Amino acid sequence: MSDLLKILTVAVETKPRKGDACNHCGYCCLTEVCPVGKELGGGEYGPCKLLRSEDNKHYCSLAEKDDAFIKLIGASTGCCAETQNEVIARLTA
Length: 93
Ligand code: SF4
Ligand code: SF4
Known about the structure:
Elements: H1 3-14, H2 27-31, H3 35-39, E1 51-54, E2 57-60, H4 61-65, H5 68-72, H6 84-92
Antiparallel strand pairs: 1-2
Bound molecules: iron/sulfur cluster (SF4) (2 copies).
Residues 15-16, 22-28, 58, 79-81 line the site of one iron/sulfur cluster.
């Protein structure tokens, strides 16, 4: 298994439900680059190059540098992402 696949597997397994408090699992930024990240060097496709990872926890380096980015990227509003399984569960509930 590749390193990225291992990291993603942990992220999927530890990700909270959408709307719950963020636990820095990293799933969102490992799989997709947000609009701000695309503008500021994160690349077009995940993992975002601006993501900092440490012990299976992941942090936006922009938000760490400047509080203004916390609001811009929506980092204070709970988990914003859904896995494919979560989407299927929501649509078939
Ligand atoms: S929140 Fe930060 S790390 Fe995540 S995709 Fe956006 S710029 Fe990249
Ligand atoms: S917002 Fe991203 S890092 Fe935070 S819990 Fe959700 S998927 Fe994980």
